[in-house]
Amino acid sequence: MIQIKKLSFEYGQKVVYDDFSLSIQDAGIYGLFGRNGSGKSTLLKLISGLLFAHGGTLSVLGHEPSRRAPDFLALVYIVPEEFHLPNITLAQLADSQSPFYPNFSKAHFEEYAGIFEIPTDKGFESMSLGQKKKAVISFALATHTPILLMDEPTNGLDILGRAQFKIIMARAEHASRVVLISTHQAHDLESLMSHVLFVDGGSLALAADMMTLQSALSMGVTDDIGQLSDVIYQEHLGQQVAYVAANHSGQALPIHLELLYKALSLQKEGVLKALNNFAGTTSTKGGTA
Ligand SMILES: Nc1ncnc2c1ncn2[C@@H]1O[C@H](COP(=O)(O)OP(=O)(O)OP(=O)(O)O)[C@@H](O)[C@H]1O
């Protein structure tokens, strides 16, 4: 669905991507992580055709995004981190924008807006930032485009809004889409995410599905770090220690995205080694089966 090969991109002298490759073939919710300034927003804009690559190739559903062909634009929706809305109501937004998206569902739009409790009688100028964000997210989800890109969607949402977001995202009608979400609010997506992508230093440091991460890594909080082997990352929390370690239990264990994020930011090589070792064991098992 998305194929990126040897992508390079700079803003003037600032190199953001250099030899970046990524392949997304399966539907799912992909969490796009990386430190501030690592290039997450830039990547979403490149995939949606809002920015043009300087080198390499990008193919999204067989289209080259930079051509911005109408057929392509009907297949991809991006929720940017910042946006401006004209002073219209929700219904007027649906009427004016939905003709560009052939799979748009007015019923779903109204349902999502209802779950988010967005006022239906007000223009956007008299809505709060969080309410406007909820309106854009509701519209984006109701377009049912096969590719949905969201840049920090839960930024500006209150605690209930974040819970409502999770409820809507988990609905079955989104299961066949590729949803790529850039976020620093890892906890908001923990239970939803099918894959984790981590960008670092202009390239893709990690692309893994949840099951692989759960099988290769062990993480949590312990009173006795000495009991654990192959600890990759640790952080003292009073008497206890939060940790990420290689998983030798033979079972899939829960992933705490914030801990994974810290381990990837500070001990990337250790995380990759644990994943490689796990891949080695599974391929050995596969070979002898
Ligand atoms: N319009 C621009 N002109 C020049 N440099 C830019 C521009 N937009 C972004 N950059 C730079 O490009 C790099 C990548 O920015 P980008 O916004 O893609 O990062 P990000 O990972 O989304 O960051 P954050 O997590 O802080 O939102 C940063 O170093 C940023 O300063």
Automatic annotation (TrEMBL):
PROSITE patterns per record: ABC_TRANSPORTER_2
The ABC transporter domain covers 2-226
Q: Which residues cross the membrane?
A: none
Any one Gene Ontology MF annotation carried by this entry is: ATP hydrolysis activity
Lineage: superkingdom: Bacteria
Q: Could you tell me which InterPro entries the record lists for this protein?
A: AAA+_ATPase, ABC_transporter-like_ATP-bd, ABC_Transporter_VariousFunc, P-loop_NTPase
Q: Name one Pfam family in it.
A: ABC_tran
Question: Which keywords belong to this entry?
Answer: ATP-binding, Cell inner membrane, Cell membrane, Membrane, Nucleotide-binding, Transport
- Name assigned to this protein: ABC transporter ATP-binding protein
Organism (species): Formosimonas limnophila
